[in-house]
Amino acid sequence: MNYFKILAILLLSSVISLYACNNNADSVKKEARESLKVTNSPTTTPNPATPEPAQNADGVWHYTCNAGCAGGAGAAGTCATCGGALAHNSAYHGNTNTTPPATNMMTPPVTPPTAEPAQNAAGVWHYTCNAGCAGGAGAAGTCGTCGGTLAHNSAYH
Fold first, then answer.
1. Which of 23, 38, 47, 111 fits a 20 to 30 Å CA distance from 150?
2. How many CB atoms lie within 10 A of CB 72?
């Protein structure tokens, strides 16, 4: 009978210790899961969009009255004059500025050079070979016959 008491005490203590360990493991797992949860809240707040002005630089209203009342608004809503609905004005976003861009008065405008023909009306080449080969070209480069450098022919002009 002595063995029966010892065996019962050992069995009871092992059940209690196993139950306590199992319970502790669940709480640890639960804490680990809670710490790994991802939150959807952003860490930074986004900048609010800057509202567009009610009128553009040309004085065109962003939203105008459907009934044609004078004035307008910067957002959709109701007309202050007649109470009608304001409609989006696509001309607000259009570039109606017809003023030419400002130019620098110190530098003249650049015009692309017009290409001169290889030979003038008299048949004289614009560029000829320094070695005296026959022929020539319309631009500086190398001679097609000897490979020498082509020089400007002042008789062309």
1. 111
2. 19
pTM > 0.90: no
Higher pLDDT, 29 or 151: 151
Helix (H, G, I), strand (E, B) or coil at 4: helix
pLDDT at 98: 47
Q: How many residues does the chain have?
A: 157
Highest mean pLDDT among 22-31, 38-47, 88-97, 147-156: 147-156
Q: Report how far Cα 12 is from the mean position of its chain's Cα atoms.
A: 72
Handedness of CA 79, 84, 88, 92 (dihedral sign): negative
- Over residues 3-22, the pLDDT tens digits come to 888 888 888 888 887 766 65
Q: How far apart are CA 76 and CA 86, in angstroms?
A: 6
Q: Return the closest-CA partner of residue 126 out of 113, 137, 134.
A: 137
CA–CA gap between residue 29 and residue 15 (Å, rounded): 21
40 vs 86: CA distance, rounded Å: 37
Q: Which residue has the tokens 């500086």?
A: 140
Cβ-in-10-Å burial (0-12, 13-18, 19+) of 64 comes to buried
